[in-house]
Amino acid sequence: MEKTRILFLCTGNSCRSQMAEAWARTLKGDEIEPFSAGIVKHGLNPMAVKVMAEAGVDMSGQFSKTIDQLPRKDFDYVITLCGHANETCPVFPGAVKHVHHGFDDPPALAKGASSEEEALKHFRRVRDEIWEYVLTLPQTL
Prior knowledge:
Rossmann fold, four-stranded parallel β-sheet
């Protein structure tokens, strides 16, 4: 059985798309071949790595990349995870289906936090929301 190739796309490939890729690899690795990228690259967010590790998922080996740096471009689905990526999503060759499922931006939410623990609460919430979404894939696409 061929795996469904999914690209998770967000603005900076630092947090949401990285978490989605890691969750898909961990939860659905037998069904999904996941990739992530950003419109630009902002670097892997250490708080995203931390909250994923708390959930038992090691994404410390992942890195921030743009679409041009991906090893392949023949995806079955491109899932945009933020409004900016949805609005600026490039056209992909072939019969790629574009799906939008937006999530809040944890770094933006955490900017006003008074402590690291308060900031991490935002990352944990979005991590868990992405987990719930990935559990439904690829069946809901």
